[in-house]
Amino acid sequence: MPFAWLLYGAFAGGLGPDPAKTVILQTGEWALRFLLLTLAVSPLRRISGWYWPMRLRRMLGLFAFFYACVHLASFCQFYTGWDAGRLLEELAERPYITVGALAWVLLLPLAITSTHAMQRRLGRNWRRLHRLVYPALLLACVHLAWQVRSDYGEALVYGVFAALLLGYRWFAGRRSRQ
């Protein structure tokens, strides 16, 4: 729905005075939201006892990757014009872009290996590979926080949710090893 709403806004002229900025911001926020939702599934299952959210986890993760791809593609289209030299210049000059690009790079193998066939093919390594979601989430939060100019409130809220989810997983992992 968020993407459909964004498309509607683009065609209806409802994206405000700077549509490029709106598209980039909205797709980035939705990528982070879906990433957080993906990581919230396991704790929700453990706390509530419900199994049905587990069936949504892969889809949520792929939505996160989809929005991250649209976010990156929008940046490339609107700010670099798909010029590789300009893109490298932006990466070198703006560390928050570099961090965001690294987060996307970490999400790429997760999306590629999200199928049942890849789970079987990779075996135990699949789970190890998919732990890349944790540094990807941290990088995404840093990406958001670094680009904020004045109001850190929203970045702080995302950071707190990320810290809670990662902290829960860390404590749950420690308890299961004891």
- Terminal Cα separation, in Å? 43 Å
Number of individual domains: 1
> Nearest-angstrom radius of gyration?
17 Å
**What is the makeup of the main sheet?**
none
What integer is the average pLDDT? 93
Unreliable stretches (pLDDT < 50, length at least 5) are none
Beta-strand proportion:
under 5%
- Helical stretch count? 9
Could you tell me the number of beta strands? Answer: 0
**Element order: H for helix, E for strand:** HHHHHHHHH
Report the structural category.
Answer: mainly alpha
Shape: globular
Helical proportion? over 70%
Question: How would you describe the overall organization of this protein?
Answer:
This protein has helices at residues 2-12, 19-48, 57-80, 84-93, 95-112, 116-122, 124-129, 133-147, 153-177. The protein has one domain. The chain is mostly helical and 178 residues long.
Write the layout of secondary structure elements.
Elements: H1 2-12, H2 19-48, H3 57-80, H4 84-93, H5 95-112, H6 116-122, H7 124-129, H8 133-147, H9 153-177
Helix pairs in contact: 1-2, 2-3, 2-8, 2-9, 3-5, 4-5, 5-8, 8-9
Summarize the structure.
GO terms for molecular function: electron transfer activity; FMN binding; heme binding; metal ion binding; oxidoreductase activity, acting on diphenols and related substances as donors. The protein is mostly helical.
Question: How would you describe this structure in keywords?
Answer:
single chain, 178 residues, mainly alpha, globular, transmembrane helix
